[in-house]
Design goal:
By secondary structure, the protein is an alpha/beta fold. The chain contains 13 helices and 16 strands.
């Protein structure tokens, strides 16, 4: 697995010098890393924009984010979406998954981390205080939630913050095994540790730099023993010869490591790409076969497998998961109402309706738990 030891240079905004994140980075940075203090992060970003590189994974910029941290999950037009919120803690990733949409989304190749936690917590307080609503909030939309955790300690601060908020659940989604620094924290059941997973052959070929399946599931087992709720994301599902036994075995392996009662939710979504991403994938990974298959554009403009193929895969995954435990909560990510109807026999009429299913599972897990912690 690619680790923070691969980082060679860290640019740090001087205005954050006394902040908790910067102090952690200075303490934990490997000895070979060059630290460069800067006054104008925009100049650094512009330099990397003009460099012509598509991605840069050896340099890191830590600066004060001037905008809003919290936003609704950027769902696609015509797709069923839930009321999920995203914290923007940084952009870019150590890992190099072939299908990652960030390759075409970013306007600069430099990995960035935002260090002004006090502004983030103030914004979260404002949004969640005195609200009669169970917030689900994640950090894995624009970066891997835990890839840089051994260096920054950011997620530990978030876990401690969310532990004190009864109406909010934090989801940290990763392809790493970096949980050990989190196991002793008093999370009070308000954090879900989640893993994106695929069969081992796909991890080796299209998810370079990430932890192996065994490493991810071993980390999940350690998190379960520490009392964390878990989640798994079979997304993107990738269609290939032998996909069904491979994905069925994947699901069996998950529950060789963890108990169904510890799993808050499972999502699944098919491989998809926008037009610009296809070009980037073929440029960066010329031997890759992901975009060589016949895919069709959906109502959101993204290309997916034919509906019949997606429906077959989703129904097969659903059947296998139900054979493990019919109480497990599975949902589709970035899919149409027709697909929901085909797979589940019903359509969530709105994000609010889909949220009700998450709430049902939350209450169900509370009833299964012998301890006093809440999700």
């Amino acid at each position: 697995m690619r680790t923070v030891d691969s980082i060679r240079r860290i640019y740090i905004d001087r205005s954050l010098a006394e902040g908790a994140v910067v102090q952690t980075v200075l303490t934990r940075a490997p000895s070979h890393v060059q630290i460069e203090w800067i006054d104008d992060p925009r100049a650094i970003l512009q330099d990397y924009q003009e460099s012509g590189a598509l991605v840069e994974k050896e340099d890191l910029l830590l600066y004060r984010f001037p905008g809003r941290f919290l936003s609704g999950c950027p769902g696609s037009d015509g797709m069923v979406c839930c009321q999920y919120f995203v914290i923007n803690l940084g952009v870019g990733c150590l890992f190099d998954c072939h299908y990652c949409y960030l390759q075409s989304f970013l306007n600069n190749p430099l990995m960035t981390v935002f260090g002004n936690l006090e502004d983030l917590f103030s914004e979260l307080d404002e949004r969640t205080r005195n609200k009669n609503f169970q917030f689900r909030i994640g950090t894995g939309e624009y970066t891997d939630s835990l890839a840089l955790e051994p260096l920054t300690g950011l997620s530990a601060h978030l876990i401690e913050y969310f532990a004190g908020h009864q109406n909010a659940t934090l989801e940290l989604k990763t392809k790493s095994e970096n949980v050990d620094s989190l196991l002793s924290l008093d999370h009070r059941g308000h954090t879900v540790l989640a893993w994106s997973i695929n069969p081992p052959a796909l991890i080796e070929t299209v998810e370079p730099g990430t932890a192996s399946l065994e490493e991810r599931l071993g980390a999940a087992a350690r998190a379960e023993r520490a009392g964390y709720r878990l989640a798994f994301h079979l997304d993107p599902l990738i269609y290939f010869e032998g996909w069904e036994p491979a994905y069925h075995r994947l699901i069996e392996q998950v529950f060789d490591y963890v108990r169904p009662d510890s799993v808050a939710w499972i999502s699944t979504g098919s491989f998809r790409y926008s037009g610009p991403l296809k070009e980037v994938i073929q440029t960066r990974f010329p031997e890759d076969r992901l975009t060589r298959q016949e895919l069709v554009a959906g109502p959101d403009g993204k290309h997916r497998y034919f509906r019949s193929i997606r429906a077959e895969m989703f129904r097969s995954i659903k059947g296998k998961i139900e054979s493990v435990d019919p109480r497990l909560f599975l949902y589709l990510c970035m899919e149409t109402q027709k697909m929901w109807s085909s797979v589940f026999g019903f359509v969530p009429g709105s994000g609010k309706n889909l949220d009700a299913l998450f709430e049902k599972r939350r209450l169900q897990m509370e009833s299964l738990s012998a301890g006093p912690t809440r999700l």
